[in-house]
Amino acid sequence: MSNPPLLLLGYNRHNLLEKRISEISQMGIEKVYISIDGGEESHKPEMTDLISKIPNLFARHTSVKIIHHKSNLGLTKHIVSSISKILEENEDIVVVEDDVAVNASFYTNMTHGINLLKTMGYNVL
User: Fold this and answer.
1) pLDDT beneath 50: ranges in the chain
2) Are 23 and 100 in contact (CB under 8 A)?
3) How many C-beta atoms lie closer than 10 Å to residue 108's C-beta?
4) How far apart are CA 36 and CA 23, in angstroms?
5) Which pLDDT score is estimated for 67?
6) What gap in Å lies between CA 20 and CA 72, rounded to an integer?
7) CA max distance for the chain
8) Long-range contacts of 87-94 (CB under 8 A, 24+ apart)
9) What is the CA radius of gyration of the chain?
10) What is the pTM (predicted TM-score) of this model?
11) How far apart are CA 7 and CA 47, in angstroms?
C-alpha cells in the first residue's frame, strides 16, 4: 500500500496556512512538504513566525520539509514546479492548497483511492 507524501501549497495567507497545518498535522502522514510562494507579503513577521513553529506542530514520526520561495513565482509556476520537484523523489503525491479545508479522513480517503486505482491497473499519474 502506497502512503504518498502530502504537498501543502501556501501563499501569503498565514491564517489559512495555519488552519491547513492544524488539520493535516492530525492525520498521521509520514511525509509532508510545505511550499510557500514568495514575495514581500510572504515574508512578513506573522508568516515567518508560523514557519518557525511548523515542525513542532507535527508528530515526531512525520518528516516535514518547508520550501519558502524568496520571490513570487505566481500561481501556475508555483504549483507546477512544486509538484514536479516532489514527483522527482516520490511515485505519488496528494496536493492541497492552503484555501481548501480538509476533514480528518481526507488523507486516508485519498490514499485508499490511489491504491485502489493502482490495483485496478490504472496509472495514477
Assistant:
1) none
2) no
3) 12
4) 17
5) 94
6) 21
7) 48
8) 87/125, 90/4, 90/5, 90/31, 91/2, 91/4, 92/2, 92/4, 92/124, 92/125, 93/4, 93/5, 93/6, 93/7, 94/4, 94/5, 94/6, 94/7
9) 15
10) 0.91
11) 18
Residue-by-residue DSSP string for the chain: -----EEEEE-S-HHHHHHHHHHHTTS--SEEEEEE--SGGGGSHHHHHHHHHHHHHS-TT-EEEEEE-SS---HHHHHHHHHHHHHTT-S--EEEETTS---TTHHHHHHHHHHHHHHTT----
Q: So what's the pLDDT on residue 125?
A: 59
Q: How far is CA 122 from CA 28, 34, 113, 117, in A?
A: 26, 28, 11, 5
- Grid coordinates representing 9? 501549497
